Amino acid sequence: MSSSLLRLGQALHGNLGRYVAVKELQDTTCKHLDDHLLNASIKQSLNRKEIKYVSGCILKALSVLHDNGYVHADVKLDNIFVNYKVGSSHENRFADIKRSRVDSALAREGTPVGAPIWSSPEVIMQTPWNTATDIWSLGAVLICLIYGGDFNIFRPATVSHDHEEYGLEVLKQQFRYFGPFPAKYQEIAGPMTVTAILYLMQEIPRSKTTPFHLITEREVSKPDKEFISKIMEMDWRDRPTVKQLLKDKWFDDSDI
């Protein structure tokens, strides 16, 4: 794992730069790569130093997109490809970039994009989205890497991924761990969105929530919980930017 991670950052940054320039990434460019990070992390869990390195690489890659006015719109472990070979000339790539402009009709109209368990609340609720949705997805990726073994706290236990209410059940999980929505959310929420939020509050009262910050340190360390809690804000306006996250004290190695 480590040999591939050492090359991940430079490769992601370079490939995304070329992607923005040519406006297209062919699926065939990834055909020679060994695996994606979901499989890799299932085979062998990453340690905290590796998780921080991967997170930094993803943030640097997203910085290229966001600076050029794009949203990746589908950040997830199986879209990050890696090589296991030491000394290989093969490159690692950030794949399946939806290449949505921040000001595109898709974003303005709240068109659903990506897989729900990696998507932000605003995407699931089909409200306008922007680069902040990538920040939420990064947080979901980070949580999965910490737990390892393909465990995803947002994966519903009640319905399958092809069920018509799958997105709603994911939203309920998000609400359980990171809710509620702040009162100020009504400033940007339409009537249907407000109705959906009121439904969540009725379905999941405070007594049935599982606040992420209260998870034991045997599961997730205090520094990791604090960093993730900064990211996983239900109101996208409260999430930090890529550049703010890259400067966060969490990336210091003193707590490893």
UniProtKB/TrEMBL annotation:
A molecular function GO annotation: protein serine/threonine kinase activity
Protein kinase domain span: 1-251
One Gene Ontology term, aspect cellular component: cytoplasm
Highest taxon in the source lineage: Eukaryota
The protein's name in its UniProt record: Protein kinase domain-containing protein
Organism name: Arthroderma otae (strain ATCC MYA-4605 / CBS 113480) (Microsporum canis)
